[in-house]
Write a structure and sequence with these properties.
This protein has about 375 residues and is an all-alpha fold. It is built from 18 helices and two strands.
Length: about 375
């Protein structure tokens, strides 16, 4: 079974303008000029350093082959040999291009950087994140075992799930959303809020047709929750027009802020996953800036509190605490009094981690799912 490949790269490339290959005129190209051009192309290839150079060479040779295919089969063999060399795996990226590719950090690395480092999120970071999850699910024993176990669990319901997703007009690959959602481990670890193979909360589950009451909880039914998943994704796709955005919406509510932002813009832009990433970058940067600017937090004095106890509890210097709050040498404080407690760097890092967690989780989601689908497509998991 072939499942649609991840859509990040295709959505990125669709916006690029690709010019049609120019045809070579028979009148202007003699046999001698043809051989001359083929030889020059070979020499050019030796000195080429970039992918773009190789693509230009491939285009030239393709034109030559098309032109002489009907004219002279023997001469074209020489050109085809040159083309084979270009397509051979021995041709690699030049060092500077390899370095450029490796410079893109995955989402987890971006948010683990120091507080002074800027947050940068774009499609290349998403592709790097997908690659990270491909490696995790193909090399890390923890994820490899979870992936294989989940896939075997879904296999029993695969035919019925295919039918359900087809009926709901949703690509059948999304039946595997249960893998990154629960790894089919929902019986042992039901979850506190979201439950079942497709991890529905009560409210969302009911909204998309699941019966959830004191006696029944259809979130645990693989087929019924699968249909609810398909309906939910269909709804999200209708709102966004993009499957990666639908995935992001399935995982959290950040896309609604993005859609509202797009509607309020004077110049309407295209609703796309790439633009959503730009929005996420901007929002994360603003939130980070607020965290770094906030030097104090407020604490209300309670019964039995003393200035010494408060300083010890929050691990702050007592003299600084007194100075920040204009407390005299008598150390008097009153119940209900608001005190400013200075943040320590460790506390700022802790707050940053908590606040950024929703961005990390949401931005990991589409790449993680697409990584799983790619491994399934490539036959990484053997069917029963």
């Amino acid at each position: 079974m072939k499942i649609n490949a991840p859509s990040f790269e295709s959505s990125l490339l669709k916006d690029q303008k690709i010019e049609k290959r120019k045809k070579i005129s028979k009148e202007k190209l003699s046999r001698r000029n043809f051989l001359k051009l083929a030889g020059a192309t070979t020499l050019t290839m030796v000195g080429s350093k970039t992918i773009a150079d190789y693509e230009k060479i491939a285009d030239t040779l393709d034109n030559l082959i098309s032109f002489f295919q009907e004219e002279n089969e023997s001469e074209i063999e020489e050109v085809e040999k040159i083309e084979d060399i270009i397509q051979n795996k021995e041709i690699k990226l030049a060092p500077e291009e390899v370095q450029e590719q490796e410079d893109y950090k995955n989402i987890n690395e971006i948010f683990k950087m120091g507080l002074d480092e800027p947050i940068e999120i774009n499609i290349n970071n998403s592709l790097a994140t997908q690659k990270y999850w491909e490696e995790q699910h193909s090399k890390n024993p923890k994820y490899v075992n979870s992936l294989k176990t989940a896939f075997k669990g879904i296999e029993k319901y695969e035919d019925n799930l295919k039918k359900i997703f087809k009926e709901e007009e949703v690509p059948e690959k999304f039946m595997y959303l249960a893998i990154p959602e629960s790894y089919w481990n929902w019986k042992k670890r039901p979850g506190r809020i979201a439950r079942g193979p497709y991890q529905f909360t009560k409210g969302t589950g009911r909204k998309f047709g699941l019966k959830i009451d004191g006696e029944n909880d259809e979130r645990f039914d693989p087929l019924k929750s699968g249909r609810a998943c398909a309906k939910y994704l269909k709804y999200l796709y209708k709102e966004t027009g993009n499957w990666d955005l639908a995935l992001a919406g399935y995982n959290g509510g950040l896309i609604w802020g993005y859609l509202k932002h797009e509607k309020q813009k004077k110049e309407k832009g295209e609703i796309s996953y790439e633009n959503f990433l730009a929005y996420m970058e901007n929002q994360a940067r603003k939130e980070k800036e607020k965290i770094l600017k906030k030097k104090h937090f407020s604490y209300r004095v309670r019964k039995k509190d003393t200035i010494w106890r408060i300083a010890k509890c929050f691990k702050v210097n007592i003299e600084k605490l007194k100075k920040d709050n204009n407390i005299g040498q008598d150390n008097k404080i009153k119940i209900g009094q608001k005190l400013k407690i200075s943040f320590k760097e460790e506390k700022i890092k802790e707050i940053y981690k908590v606040k950024m967690n929703r961005y990390i989780e949401n931005l990991n989601y589409p790449p993680k799912f697409n990584a799983v689908i790619k491994l399934i497509n490539e036959g990484f998991i053997e069917r029963s």
